[in-house]
Amino acid sequence: MEIRQSKQPNFFLKKRVRLSIMIGLLGVLYVGAAVILNFNSAAFLYLDRGMIWLFQNFIPTSQSITYWYSITQALLRTFVVAVAATSVAGVLALVLAILGAKSTGPSRTLSWVIRGFASIMRNIPIVGWAMLLLFSFKQNDFTGFLALLFLSVGFLTRAFMETIEDVDVEKIQALQVTGASYLQVISQAVLPEITTPLISWLLYMIENNIRDATLVGLLTGTGIGFVFDLYFKSLRYGPAGLVVLAIIILVIAVELVSNYVERRIAA
Known about the structure:
- It is found in: Cell membrane.
- Pfam families: BPD_transp_1.
- Belongs to the binding-protein-dependent transport system permease family.
- Its main location: membrane.
- The chain is mostly helical.
- The protein folds into 2 domains: 2-39; 58-266, MetI-like (MetI-like fold), CATH 1.10.3720.
- It has helices spanning 2-37, 47-58, 68-100, 108-123, 126-137, 141-165, 169-177, 182-220, 223-233, 237-266.
- Helix 8 (182-220) packs parallel to helix 9.
- The radius of gyration is 25 Å and the shape is globular.
């Protein structure tokens, strides 16, 4: 009993020391960042004024409705680019995932190559892809499409590989023993098992790409991101607020449709 009582205070003391060190490090990092960036912490005191200004200027008015047509056109282009990039990425990622998964890949070397390729593609942020592609393809919808495509291929390839590797290996081996070809094994043992999770991943990627496409549009000068940037820089805050509202409505609508599709598939 004495040993337990002596160890318990030491345990809580170590926890408090670690917590104090962590808080101290965070404080040092904050102060250092504030000094380097010349950040004024007193700005937090005026946060309420900023929120009041935001609601006074960014709430869409009756005059903002006249911009609705151009906003919906840009929003539709953004949606089409996001869906197209996700669809093409889904096909490419499925092929790469089948070749790179441990249970279906033809060789370990190819599996490692594909895994490395997918890691590189998905770890470069969407802004990085957009800036790199701007040098070659300039400001157009195709640049945004490629930026979303490259990031989506990397993300979906890793997600699809993990999904394929969760398939029961005994089913694959059973078909191989009967003399089934490689394509027959994939079509009969793998694809039927992974259809539902693959659709879920694709729907998730579409939602994510719609959000990213808005940011990409700021750089590529296309879509809803460009429209927001144009209205904001020209001090047309009402229409800019309407753009934000349209994006929110689209994202919520896509999420509701995705949830409905997933429920129907699971039923």
